[in-house]
Write a structure and sequence with these properties.
Largest sheet: 6 strands, mixed
CATH topology of the largest domain: Outer membrane lipoprotein wza fold like
Mean pLDDT: 84
Number of helices: 11
Number of strands: 20
Distance between the termini: 57 Å
Shape: rod-shaped
Helix content: 25-40%
CATH class of the largest domain: Alpha Beta
Length: 400
């Protein structure tokens, strides 16, 4: 009991295991939840990693065809089956071919195109095929078997915005053929920085999601289809974590990859110190969203705000915990702390007691030895002398 009490006043690099377990119930401390890493917890966290596919489920069908909007520049070519119709003169030699090209025009503020002899044709919200059919329907009673081809001259509404750490940031037209997010980033010049440090944010219809760039390459499900008017923001943020306590090193360490696990992070920090660490007291500090915390069984009623402070614990004395640690993905700015074992703290306390004892006994022993030596010199003889608690042999000293 004395040793355990004494450990509380000994120098240490961080809290002991009992401090972490008891601190969650101490009203004087910052409130936090204590969660042991189990297969269920690892499964919940595995589904909550920052990925685009988590916010935007992959659509196995191709995106809808691009529709025209106000301001798009459109070209229209009209064909007739033979000369002598509405657009092709009767004299076959007057002009080659049997088509007429209408000068490119913008979809007007009313959402229409103007086609000769057909009037205003609705274009806003329609695809190329739908506009072509509308032109044919408007001319079929006046032209000879008319056909129409509508082409995009300049796209001004169905655009994709790509910003941030890319080669050519800006607004680029959406393709008529479906493309995925990596295709769009490639058209914008690709990422300007190294892949492991790059992150991608996608905004669509007011919803946002984040994902490391490496997830698009190594987890293809995240490489989802891009829709017109999506916003892609690429930015560079090197991922790091902090290590404290009985680890090989205590400092800020970079991930060095687009993702690492808890097992890799502990190894990167030099592993547990064999002479000091308690393998059962490996803690990871992180804030989780309220819904993730509740999915792990945390009572969030006593916490305020959307982020719940959580201290995770894993017991490396259990061989199976190493398997769990290989599935537990680290997050940016995570903090790992490993407590000292009880024996180390007890040894530190006993060393402290011996230091105090020596500090007190040294002056007393010196005084006793000086007094004894003085008596020996004065009397000339001494049967015994107490020197630092030991019995000395008889010393005969001639009288002065």
């Amino acid at each position: 009991m004395v040793v355990a009490a004494g450990c509380a006043v000994m120098p240490a690099s961080g809290p002991q295991s009992w401090d972490v377990w008891a601190g969650q119930h101490d009203p004087k401390n910052l409130p936090y939840a204590f969660v042991r890493i189990t297969p269920k917890v690892a499964d919940v966290l595995g589904k909550a990693v920052p990925r685009l596919v988590g916010e935007f489920p992959p659509d196995r069908r191709r995106p809808k065809d691009i529709v025209f909007g106000i301001g798009d520049i459109v070209g229209v070519t009209i064909f007739e089956a033979s000369s002598g119709g509405l657009f092709i003169p009767a004299e076959a030699g007057v002009r080659p071919g049997n088509f007429i090209t209408i000068p490119p025009q913008a979809v007007d503020v009313h959402g229409n195109l103007t086609i000769p002899y057909a009037g205003a044709i609705r274009a806003q919200g329609r695809t190329q095929v739908e506009i072509q059919q509308a032109i044919i329907d408007a001319l079929k009673d006046r032209a000879i078997e008319p056909q129409a081809i509508v082409s995009v001259v300049e796209q001004r509404t169905s655009l994709i915005t790509v910003l941030g750490d890319v080669g050519r940031p800006g607004r680029i037209p959406a393709q008529l053929t479906p493309e995925r997010i990596l295709d769009t980033i490639s058209r914008a010049g690709g990422t300007a920085g190294p892949g492991p440090d790059e992150w991608v944010m996608l905004e669509r219809n007011g919803r946002r999601a984040l994902s490391p760039f490496g997830a698009f390459v190594y987890e293809p499900a995240n490489n989802i289809y891009i829709h017109p008017n999506d916003i892609i923001y690429v930015y560079r943020e090197p991922q790091t974590f902090l290590t404290f306590g009985a680890l090989g090193t205590q400092q800020q360490l970079p991930f060095g990859a687009w993702r690492i696990t808890l097992a890799e992070a502990v190894a990167k920090a030099g592993g547990l110190q064999d002479a000091a660490a308690d393998p059962a007291s490996v803690f990871l500090y992180r804030g989780e969203t309220r819904d993730v915390a509740e999915a792990m069984g945390v009572d969030t009623s006593k916490f305020q705000g959307p982020i719940i402070p959580i201290i995770y614990n894993i017991n490396f004395r259990n061989p199976g915990s190493y398997l769990l640690a290989t599935t537990f993905e680290m997050r940016n700015k995570d903090v790992i702390h490993v407590s000292n074992s009880v024996s180390v703290e007890a040894t530190k306390f006993m060393t402290y007691l011996r230091l105090i004892n020596a500090t007190v006994n040294d002056p007393v022993s010196s005084a006793i030895n000086a007094y004894t030596l003085k008596n020996i010199i004065q009397t000339g003889t001494a049967n015994t002398a107490i020197i630092t608690g030991a019995t000395a042999p008889i010393i005969n000293v001639p009288a002065p």
